[in-house]
């Protein structure tokens, strides 16, 4: 009788770095089932479901055009304001929905988590992938608007080869949103009141992200503050790739990449630590 | 020789009562700030005992050791709070043990609930895939079994309808169909599966038997003695977090039932005659419950007859005495009152309705098999003179437990309504 071939050993503590990634791979079908569920749920539940993804950025863009362009007169680096705001919003919306939706992973899924085991990381991963759907719709809207400005208004549109980096930019936005989201979700198992802080904090964060203004508008300490935000180079880069306006440098992108990797790793480690026995606390 | 598929070594689980921190950031930050300034126990400083209370520990499991061999059906029983669900949760990897180790060989799946993760907007078929994936099946595995699952569920017609339009019965059937087609090497089943309608339970129990027949291993947690007895060969008894017994299921069940007899009274003897219930006419000396072999016992099976006996002494020649028994359930519901008046009994009692000479008498009433429902009953014993004067009254003189033999449980394992459970005559005709 062999005694060495145990398939699973349940121990009180495993190494923080044992992320059981092979488990994650074994449950990959579940990841796509969750994505499909989110997709179907959104489309079936409301008539406005998918339409909402378009209405929200359109209305926000119009609002920004009135308030920040017309009234406040904040420049847009020479780009058409509608395109300027919408391009920032598309990225920002993806980030904020990744962050907000993953930030209540534990509290929202306590029911399932209490009844069956699967790698918990599947849930926030599926959220990040599901959010790509609304991102895709909004990106489509942006492209349509871009085409309109190019064909009918004869605006200067400078689509360039930087656009090929879009998947990498997206991956960074997703990783940032996911990293912070799971850090927050891990903390909310202990601190329930963090939930209120998060939605408010995200709102505030938008104002230190170049969504409604270009980075070039600021200088000195303000600029340093805005540059500390790892989303800043990503949005500037994205704007540059489609509108030809943007202010970023290699080291800023490098900072953003490193920041992203660290926050994602920290998030996964913390999540991994909390997931093992959060059911005792919640 | 079949190999060991689960080895549980010294597993303990500690829960902290109350909350770990204070629950809000504000308080924790305040505490942290206070500590920083050297003021210890900003929040707990006023009353140190409160601080201690907050960190009270509770051991849900204490040093549990056991092994399960391949193909075994192991029953785990115990009262509420014995640690059954903690053990289940650890085995299902929902939480981790505080100490100890569990080694598992083979794929393990646990069913603490059916239909976990079902989404109302998705169709029956989509939910099969979703639920199957949550339970650990791959898409191709589910695809291979899809037809089988749909056929088993009996909801073929509605399989493309969102399940929010399903009746609760259809919902459960679909959920169970998915669960039943899981093919892990080790299956952990919680007793929640045994509630629901009779058909569902029958299917559930039948499927478990079949799974075990295929050489797979099952852990079944329940406090339904009839169910564990009919399914499991070996059993574990947990009590207050400790493993009390690991033996054949029958022995474990018997031990458990005997253990749970605290407070049962098979016999009351009034040794000091002057203190015995009664007066100068007559006194009750002993009240007892005896089984069919004439042995006093506080536990009787539903499917066995038993007797309630009153032994009394008559002190006056010519007394006309009647023995009377009243039965109550544990919750105080009156079950019956019976007395040996000539017109109130179905046989002939030689001392019923005739003047008695001095001496000791033993009156007993036979309670038929398949008459009382399972549960705990109290009996009062009364002696009546001339049919109306109470001479002696012994309140709750015997307390006994009627247990389910499983004889009427071949189809249904859930709660059985009522204080009595007779087998009655049923006829069904074609109209």
Automatic annotation (TrEMBL), chain A:
What membrane topology is annotated for this entry? Multi-pass membrane protein
Q: Where in the cell is it found?
A: Cell inner membrane; Cell membrane
UniProt keyword terms in alphabetical order: Cell inner membrane, Cell membrane, Membrane, Transmembrane, Transmembrane helix, Transport
PROSITE patterns recorded for this chain?
Answer: ABC_TM2
Q: Where is the ABC transmembrane type-2 domain?
A: 48-274
Protein name as annotated = Transport permease protein
Q: Which residues cross the membrane?
A: 46-67, 82-100, 121-150, 162-187, 194-213, 253-271
- Family statement: Belongs to the ABC-2 integral membrane protein family.
UniProtKB/TrEMBL annotation, chain B:
Q: Which UniProt keywords apply?
A: ATP-binding, Nucleotide-binding, Transport
Please report the name of this protein according to its UniProt entry: ABC transporter ATP-binding protein
Superkingdom of the source species: Bacteria
Example GO molecular function: ATP binding
Could you say which protein family the record assigns here?
Belongs to the ABC transporter superfamily.
Q: Does the keyword Transport apply?
A: yes
* Organism classification: Bacteria, Pseudomonadati, Bacteroidota, Cytophagia, Cytophagales
Keyword Cytoplasm applies = no
Provide the ABC transporter domain boundaries. 36-265
């Amino acid at each position: 009788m062999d005694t060495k071939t145990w398939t699973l050993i349940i121990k009180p503590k495993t190494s923080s770095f044992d992320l059981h990634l092979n488990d994650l791979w074994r449950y990959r079908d579940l990841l796509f089932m969750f994505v499909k569920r989110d997709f179907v749920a959104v489309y079936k539940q409301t008539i406005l479901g998918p339409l909402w993804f378009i209405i929200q950025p359109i209305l926000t863009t119009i609002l920004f055009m009135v308030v920040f362009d017309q009234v406040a007169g904040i420049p847009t680096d020479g780009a058409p304001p509608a395109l300027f705001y919408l391009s920032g919003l598309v990225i920002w919306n993806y980030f904020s929905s990744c962050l907000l939706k993953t930030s209540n992973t534990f509290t929202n899924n306590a029911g399932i988590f209490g009844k069956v085991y699967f790698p918990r990381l599947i849930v926030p991963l599926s959220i990040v992938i599901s959010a790509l759907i609304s991102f895709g719709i909004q990106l489509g809207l942006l492209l349509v608007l871009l085409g309109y400005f190019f064909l009918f208004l004869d605006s200067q549109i400078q689509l360039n080869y930087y656009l090929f980096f879009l998947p990498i930019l997206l991956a960074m936005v997703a990783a940032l949103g996911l990293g912070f989201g799971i850090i927050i979700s891990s903390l909310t198992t202990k601190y329930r009141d963090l939930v209120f802080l998060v939605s408010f904090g995200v709102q505030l964060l938008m104002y230190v992200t170049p969504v409604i203004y270009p980075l070039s508008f600021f200088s000195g300490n303000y600029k340093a503050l805005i540059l500390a935000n790892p989303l800043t180079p990503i949005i500037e880069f994205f704007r540059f790739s489609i509108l030809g306006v943007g202010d970023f440098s290699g080291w800023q992108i490098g900072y953003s990449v490193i920041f992203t990797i660290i926050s994602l790793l920290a998030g996964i480690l913390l999540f991994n630590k909390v997931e093992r026995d959060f059911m005792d606390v919640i | 020789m079949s190999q060991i598929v689960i080895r549980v070594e010294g597993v303990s689980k500690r829960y902290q009562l109350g909350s770990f921190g204070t629950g809000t950031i504000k308080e924790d930050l305040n505490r942290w700030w206070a500590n920083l300034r050297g003021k210890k126990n900003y929040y707990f400083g006023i009353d140190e005992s409160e601080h201690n209370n907050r960190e009270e520990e509770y051991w849900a499991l204490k040093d549990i050791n056991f092994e399960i061999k391949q193909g075994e059906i192991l029953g785990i029983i115990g009262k509420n709070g014995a640690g059954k669900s903690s053990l289940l949760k650890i085995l299902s990897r929902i939480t981790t043990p505080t100490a100890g180790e569990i080694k598992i060989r083979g794929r393990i799946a646990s069913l603490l609930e059916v239909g976990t993760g079902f989404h109302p907007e998705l169709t029956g078929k989509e939910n099969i895939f979703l639920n199957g994936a949550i339970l650990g099946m791959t898409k191709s595995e589910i695809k291979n079994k899809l037809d089988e699952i749909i056929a088993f569920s009996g909801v073929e017609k509605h399989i493309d309808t969102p399940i929010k339009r399903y009746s609760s019965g259809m919902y459960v059937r679909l959920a169970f169909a998915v669960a039943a087609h899981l093919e892990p090497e080790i299956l952990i089943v919680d007793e929640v599966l045994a509630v629901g309608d009779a058909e569902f339970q029958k299917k559930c129990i039948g499927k478990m038997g079949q799974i075990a027949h295929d050489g797979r291993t099952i852990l079944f947690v329940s406090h339904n003695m009839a169910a564990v007895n009919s399914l499991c060969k070996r059993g574990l008894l947990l009590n207050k977090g400790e493993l009390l017994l690991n033996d054949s299921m029958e022995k474990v069940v018997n031990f458990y039932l005997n253990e749970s007899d605290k407070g049962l009274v098979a016999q009351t003897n009034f040794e000091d005659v002057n203190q015995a219930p009664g007066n100068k006419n007559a006194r009750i000396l002993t009240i007892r419950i005896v089984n069919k072999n004439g042995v006093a016992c506080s536990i009787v099976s539903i499917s066995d007859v038993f007797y309630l006996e009153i032994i009394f002494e008559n002190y006056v020649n010519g007394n006309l005495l009647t023995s009377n028994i009243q039965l109550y359930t544990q919750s105080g519901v009156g079950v019956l009152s019976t007395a040996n008046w000539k017109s109130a009994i179905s046989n002939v009692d030689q001392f019923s309705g005739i003047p008695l000479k001095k001496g000791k008498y033993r009156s007993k009433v036979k309670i038929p098999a398949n008459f009382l429902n399972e549960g705990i009953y109290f009996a009062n014993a009364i002696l009546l003179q001339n049919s109306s004067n109470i001479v002696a009254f012994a309140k709750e003189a015997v307390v006994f437990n009627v247990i389910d033999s499983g004889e009427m449980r071949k189809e249904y394992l859930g709660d059985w309504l009522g204080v009595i459970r007779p087998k009655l005559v049923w006829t069904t005709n074609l109209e």
